[in-house]
Amino acid sequence: MLERESVMNSEIRDISLAESGMRKIEWVRRNCPLLGMLTEEFGRTRPFEGKKIALSVHLEAKTAYLCLTLAAGGAKMYVTGSNPLSTQDDVAAALVSQGLEVHAWHGATEEEYFSHIRAVLACGPNIIIDDGGDLVHMMHTELTDLIPGVIGGCEETTTGIIRLEAMNREGKLRFPMVRVNNAMMKHFFDNRYGTGQSVWDGINRTTNLIVAGKTVVVAGYGWCGKGVAMRAKGLGARVIVTEIDPVKAIEAVMDGFDVMPMAQAAKKGDFFITVTGCEKVIDAEDFLNMKDGAVCCNAGHFDCEVDIAWLRANAQKTEMMRDNIQGFLLPNGRWVYVLGEGRLVNLACGDGHPAEIMDMSFAIQALSAKYMVEHRDEIGSMLIDVPRDVDLEVARKKLAFLGKEIDVLTPEQERYLNESGM
């Protein structure tokens, strides 16, 4: 009965794909011990009993396992994807087969995408789990009547936090949000090692081109950019970093990379990866300076970092070279190739971060949502960081699953560190 109801209420491509999606989720389950532990714990304690959670995250198997973990805790889940090209239809079907309500399908138009966002929020959520800020934005612009029912929420990514901080500065944010991306266990590992590996997974499987001996231009040297540059170096590339922050630029130099403005780097690069959260990082002037056959892609949340609109408007010819590679013949006679329509290359052209990485990030998400419910009357500001105890709990448990131990301070050492000596 539950499955029939969820099928009737959901908007997905094809429920018959559920078996394939469940196989993917089962593989993730086998490689995500933290979420497995939380699923068991939540099944006993039911921290989300009677609560409605609206979730918009890249809808693939790892996200699906997070949804099932929250559902095990008593939550009624309403799920959509945060990017039309990262939604996997078989995974969406699998969640529906488990009784969750899903509004998402691969390749949704912009109109369909926002319709799905609207449908998920129509439940009147108590908790919001967002990736990029579209759920929160729509709540504050179109569906303000539902805000009184919101306890708070969690934001997964840097881009979403930038949007939240802007809303908060302007006094427009009307319920508390946890900056999940700022947790140590998130940005140290998800952003650096997860993005670093998954970006190159997406590029390599899509292009089938060698990286060794090529010049890779990485725009932005935050945690994600560090990971992308590090993995490019490991693959044998020469790496150029472009930055606007002088401190990060020095760090890139100290890490062994060249640093220069994009206008100069555009002439040298073979692969270009944007990881900034800003728009038009690669623009018309840059395209016209590029080598014939340069490959451009984006690893930031929104598809505005590589100026696809200019390419579409000014290319002499556009051609699909192979799946997820669009070629643009420029007025100067050179070809530029764009991967995944300029959307997140690791998800539009791949399966996203490795399961073991998202095990940590989604454990942070789940525990932050639990914290929000349990401490709703104590939260004094609209933007809060992940409590340090939550961060450390995830770290300790991950170490235990890895079979590693660390030292513990003796009472004498604690006294030494905590006494002023005066």
Walkthrough of the structure:
This protein has 422 residues and is α/β, with parallel strands linked by helices. The chain folds into 2 domains: 2-186 and 353-401, 3-Layer(aba) Sandwich (Rossmann fold); 196-348, NAD(P)-binding Rossmann-like Domain (Rossmann fold, 3-Layer(aba) Sandwich). It has 18 helices and 15 strands. Helix 4 links the parallel strand 1 and strand 2. Helix 2 (18-30) packs across helix 5 (89-97), helix 4 packs parallel to helix 16 (355-374) and helix 16 packs antiparallel against helix 17 (388-401). It is globular and about 65 Å long. The chain starts with a helix and ends with a helix. The mean pLDDT is 94.
Relative helix content: 40-55%
Into which percentage range does the β-strand content fall? 5-15%
- How many beta-strand segments? 15
Strand order of the largest sheet: 9-8-7-10-11-14-13-12
CATH superfamily of the largest domain: Adenosylhomocysteinase-like
User: What is the CATH topology of the largest domain?
Assistant: Rossmann fold
In short:
The mean pLDDT is 94. The chain has 422 residues and is an alpha/beta fold.
Record keyword descriptors for this entry.
seven-stranded parallel sheet; Rossmann fold; 2 domains; 422 residues; single chain; globular; eight-stranded mixed sheet; alpha/beta
What does the secondary structure layout of this molecule look like, with pairings?
Blueprint: H1 2-9, H2 18-30, H3 33-45, E1 52-56, H4 61-72, E2 76-80, H5 89-97, E3 101-102, H6 110-121, E4 127-130, H7 134-141, E5 152-155, H8 158-169, E6 177-179, H9 184-207, E7 215-219, H10 223-234, E8 238-242, H11 246-254, E9 258-259, H12 262-265, E10 271-274, H13 284-289, E11 294-298, H14 308-314, E12 317-322, E13 325-329, E14 335-339, H15 345-348, H16 355-374, E15 383-385, H17 388-401, H18 411-418
Parallel strand pairs: 1-2, 1-4, 2-3, 4-5, 5-6, 6-15, 7-8, 7-10, 8-9, 10-11, 11-14
Antiparallel strand pairs: 12-13, 13-14
